[in-house]
Amino acid sequence: MFSSSRQFKTSSKSFSKSQKVNKSSSSFSKDSGVTKRRHEPRHRRPTTTSSSTTADTMMSNTSSIITLVVGSEQRLFAAHEDVLCASPYFASALRNGYLDPVTKRIALPDEEPEIFSSVLEYLYKGDYFPRLVHNKRRHSYELEQIHDDERGSAESTVYHHSVDGDLLKDTVIYCAAERYGLDELKKISLRKQGLQSGIQCSTILASARYAYANTPDSDSKLRAHYLALIIRSRSTFKRSGTMQLEMFNGGTQLFFDLFVALSNHVDDISSASGTPRSNRFI
Prior knowledge:
By secondary structure, this protein is an alpha+beta fold.
């Protein structure tokens, strides 16, 4: 995706090795936790090309072709107008003349090409790689099996220029779906959140901060994912020192919500054990 490479420091603790999530659950899977396996720093990855995303459906569609210029390096994507119009965002852009009058293009300078490639793949195919597979025998969802030659494009994190580091790809896709008005894509990316492994504590916290910055207060589902994950893995986050640094920097709604969630968690435990809830003020 980018020609230069970047690296950033990460904690030695990493996210769960769970590969399944219960169909009825909307939070991170119960087995999600933090492992001690070090996630090696890596260079920014090339994006999936738009041609591979849409090649099997391009020829059967007769609507106008729209060119989109994505990211700071102005990567070019092409999509059919009626496919783009499934998104209220793009329908409004096309209706209100947001096309460049000279080049007939839509510019998305703040979008990551790798993320937009997944959005475009969803618009054409109803999902993005790696796709969700429903295991009927286990009544759970899994990510499709990935061949060795596909692993590079199936990494669970993505470099994002706004944080100059890696974020969980499904989180960034969820926020893009929020921006483009694609509710079904939000559901898909939300379900995939708990199906990844080997994610650093620092990346989880950076992704949580990104989720808070790019979703409205009324949309609490993605935020609840991160609150539940941090609470379940609280011992590891405490030992890692990453949480201490994040709280020292502070300044986000994340930490107040985390305090409320932890308080509710303690109250639930107290109620279950018959211990009176504390009425003291701090």
